[in-house]
Amino acid sequence: MMKLTTEQRNERSERLDRLSTVEIITLMNEEDQKVPLAVKEALPQIEPAIEAIVERLAAGGRLFYIGAGTSGRLGILDAAECPPTFGTKKEQVTAIIAGGSQAIFEAVEDAEDNAEAGRDEVRKQVSSSDVLFGIAASGKTPYVLGAVAEAKRLGIRTVGLACNQHTLLGASVDYPIEVNVGPEIVTGSTRLKAATAQKLVLNMISTATMIRLGKVYKNLMVNVQATNDKLRKRVIDIIQEAAQVDEETARRSCDLANGDARAAILMLEFQTDYAAVMEAMEAAGGHFGRARGQLLLHQ
């Protein structure tokens, strides 16, 4: 049986242990440059997956990433960054990793080989209104395949991300994404190019989804959560940029809007109060652009 591409030896790095430091990092950099091009080839697969996720989340569903090892950790990272960046509820985008929380920081032996554990997690946590997003560089991780199989049985929409072609994962999901990054410079170490490709794809998935859900205005993070001094300053900057006002006006509006950049921007633009703006936001399902459109109609 032919080895998976991610498990094959890279001819360019066969003398890796004899290279100087600058030669090692130059080779790594050259190999890493192949990753965005491989992701580009997968854009036709990524687009329909995002459309499916947007549809489910707009209807109140949730997105669950599931994976093992590095793949699972990348899912956790992407999910964890959605609430502070886009103001989502923590349950809207979440992640499951083989072996549980212990596996975030250390290897849990055999966890990725337990297909039944993957099935159990889906039965316990995921519903038919959600999307299950399996992540596996190899495309054959039993834990992920078990989860996807159970999701399919329960009528849950499924997406799969692998870094090989013609994978079991790809064949098992509704929306396969297969990014062929080629062999790693350290044979089989998929924390390198494969993980970089996964991070790029997950960035696209969550960011494009949140843009489509109205969490961004123009290119501004209007849903950012001001949880520290840096982010509080960013909220003021966003209000200034969007409403074209000075810092003092932006700060005053931010205070009146309880720190909500969306509300502050709309209050300034339409010269209305917080309650009216939040009523429009609620009617628009939290979609900034639609809320703004409603306020325009009622001017």
Automatic annotation (TrEMBL):
It is an enzyme of class 4 (lyase). Its EC number is 4.2.1.126. Pathway: Amino-sugar metabolism; N-acetylmuramate degradation. InterPro entries: Etherase_MurQ (IPR005488), Glucokinase_regulatory_CS (IPR005486), MURQ/GCKR (IPR040190), Reg_chr_condens (IPR000408), SIS_dom (IPR001347), SIS_dom_sf (IPR046348). Keywords: Carbohydrate metabolism, Lyase. The keyword Membrane does not apply. A lyase-type mechanism (elimination/hydration) is suggested for the cleavage of the lactyl ether bond of MurNAc 6-phosphate, with the formation of an alpha,beta-unsaturated aldehyde intermediate with (E)-stereochemistry, followed by the syn addition of water to give product. Belongs to the GCKR-like family. MurNAc-6-P etherase subfamily. NCBIfam families: N-acetylmuramic acid 6-phosphate etherase (TIGR00274), PRK05441.1 (NF003915), PRK12570.1 (NF009222). This is N-acetylmuramic acid 6-phosphate etherase.
